[in-house]
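Memo to structure team: turn this sequence into structure tokens by end of day. - J.P.
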Amino acid sequence: MRKTLIYITLIFLGAICFSCASECYVSKETKLGISFLDSTTYKAKKISNLKVMGVLNDSILYNNATVSAIYLPLRSNDTNTNYRLILPTKTEGKETPDTIFLHIDHTPKPQLISEECGCAMFHELHDAKLVNNTYNFKIQVTNQNVQISDLTVSKDDKETNIKILH
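Reply from structure team:
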């Protein structure tokens, strides 16, 4: 009888411990989606040897990548975020890097997901500009809300918020 009581107590305590330790399966990372499109057909167009770096922190997010879309984090403690898009240019037979600055104005908006998961940072886009645009890219803000597309698990299919036509 005593062993049965000990087993029941252990099972009961184990159930209480496991029910309190819930895990958070929510992706709290929101990223700005930028697609590169052909300016005449509006179809995805790949950019080769693209390097993307943050301004003020020099973090390299993409290095010599061949992509038709990139996904960049926005500053959660500021109302603007800046990036350097470094592309190779052929001048007199030599490849030299050419830098375009991407300036994004946004408003960070924290949103409570749940007690267990905490807050996720969403952003509302106001404007996006290309500075030193020697490639004559055109920019369009297509979706002003940068948020998590699926609240269960982070997915590969992310939204496009900005289109760069070239």
